[in-house]
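Journal club prep — side note

Before the paper discussion, L.F. wants everyone to see what a predicted structure for a comparable chain looks like in token form. Sequence:
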Amino acid sequence: MDPSSIVRKEILSLQKPFHGGTAWKLGEIEDFSSNLNPLGPLPCLGELIAEYVHEVDHYPDDHSMDFREALSDHYKVPIDCVIAGAGSSELIRLFPEVFISPGDEVLIPLPGFSEYTFGCRLMGASIKNFHLTGNNDFRVNYDEILSKLDEGLKAVYLCNPNNPTGRLESKKNILELAEELEKRNALLFLDECLLELVEGSQNHTCAVEVESHSNMFIINSLTKSFGFPGLRVGYGIGSLGVIAQIEKARLSWNMGGIEQRVAASCVRDHYSHVTKASKIIDGEKRRMSEALKTMGMSTASVPDSFFFFTSLRDFGFSSAEFKDQMLKQGIMVRDCSSFGNDCENYTRFSVRTREKNDIFLSAFKRVLES
């Protein structure tokens, strides 16, 4: 039997999204391609894992109460507005599984994180895009979004700061969009996974607004902010109605007992690890911007977020060529061509500690000299 003859039609044309974060496979390579806490995981992470290793002798709490209570206290929202996920990627998939039917229209930014489109196509959605362009400094054009709000639109996706462009949108604009969508009985999916390492992130998050916006669903993750992508710890915050529906479809025991306990401890007792990193990044991104401009990268303005997304036009490199040249110097950057043709001459690289950033700048200088 040929399984392709009976598979759902949505599966036949799907291709798995491409992701970075593979520098660990290459040995002695400095990874600037992943957007993670530059301080790395908590120094006590191993001790925390060992402390909770006894959790493996029984099924985990299916409702992740300890972790969700910690998040509820942190964001000052009811616990029933919080859902736990095995990384934010589980929740990106779960949202369309719950709300999207074949033929529903969704509006997704381009360039943007490919998992949004993948999850929606899996459920048979009709994908429409709004474009983030260099002409608008890759910021959201809300007039364009409003012009595309058709009768059949089910949801709009936003990422703040956006991946890969790193642009930060104002909370005011996002909430105004949420209110307009609410009038049209449409949902707002907001990805804030890249927000917490931005200095002053508490002034930008919309998490505290979910009780007054019935159509909002916000995802976040400890992966980047605490620097442990090998532990799959994500969460969603939304209105009571949205979370209630998503909870019905959540995979049972989706978070392991160790992950739940470690995550709760991180949020309650170790959040200074994130705020310390955000302060370091805030100074270092300004220093890096000045250094890169001095070396001729005129497009390397100070980013809103904790990573650079910048054109290579000053040097005539494609994104893939620049990645190859930096790899020869022991540095991995993100080849942005996977985000679409508009990004084939752009590169993305993270801001790390001063010592690591100096290594990056020295490698960049050698690439230019060669």
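L.F.'s comment for the group: The chain has a mean pLDDT of 94. Keep this in mind when we get to the figures.
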